[in-house]
Design goal:
The structure is a single chain. By secondary structure, this protein is mostly helical. It has 2 domains: 93 residues, Rna Polymerase Sigma Factor, Chain: A; 101 residues, Orthogonal Bundle (Arc Repressor Mutant, subunit A), CATH 1.10.10. The protein contains 10 helices and no strands. Helix 7 packs across helix 9. The chain is globular and about 55 Å long.
């Protein structure tokens, strides 16, 4: 079997299968997990922290800790949820240090790590997206940590309310309240700056964020 075929077979394995092989001492299986999840973990840290350098450090440390602790992973949650928990804990440590060092710079929408196909994007659309991304980031930085993290996990990473509740160690109702209040404040701030309606929402780096209704959140 060629190297390409071996790599393709490894990518077809589930996270659980790769974890089992890594636990048994196969380093390549863990490398496959890194390849599979490093983009999402970097994106999570980048959106929560707001700086690429810190996000890369968190991403690297997340996988280092996961490698060291892979034998302690019991499969009671998804491997991705385990990684997210490690990364979020590291992000909280980073943010505590940031509070002592002073404010951080905001995200640059141009380097936003979303795997979005923008081949058909016009120059005007790109300019609008960048400007809107900067506005959203500015407002996101003013939200309490819990609300900001909840929005990132739900709107960017598509986690369920239950998954977020498990990660944050809080009741399901608390997660819904954080998302409801956070999106409400974000929408209000954007509206004050002239961003509202479905057209603006379609161009937003956060899917349908600027124009979505929060009244239906409790049912999701």
């Amino acid at each position: 079997m060629s190297g390409t075929q071996v790599g393709a077979l490894a990518m077809q394995r589930t996270d659980e299968e790769l974890v089992a092989l890594a636990t048994a001492g196969d380093p390549d299986s863990f490398n496959q997990l890194v390849v599979r999840w490093e983009r999402q973990i970097f994106a999570l840290a980048y959106r929560v922290l707001g700086r690429e350098e810190d996000a890369r450090d968190v991403c690297q440390e997340t996988f280092l800790r996961a490698f060291r602790g892979i034998r302690s992973f019991k499969g009671q949650a998804r491997f991705s949820s385990w990684l997210y928990r490690i990364a979020l804990n590291l992000c909280r440590d980073w943010m505590r240090r940031e509070r002592r060092r002073g404010p951080t710079t905001t995200l640059d929408a141009e380097t936003e790590p979303d795997p979005v196909d923008r081949a058909a994007e016009t120059a005007e659309d790109r300019t609008v997206r960048r400007d809107l991304g900067r506005l959203i980031t500015e407002v996101m930085r003013t939200l309490p940590e819990e609300q900001r993290t909840t929005i990132v996990l739900k709107e960017y990473h598509g986690l369920t309310f239950q998954e977020i509740a498990d990660l944050q160690g809080c009741p399901l109702s608390t997660v819904k309240t954080r998302l409801y209040q956070g999106l409400g404040r974000l929408r209000q701030q954007l509206k004050r700056r002239g961003v509202e309606g479905p057209d603006s929402a379609a161009r937003s780096p956060v899917p349908a964020l600027a124009g979505r209704r929060t009244a239906n959140l409790a049912s999701r």
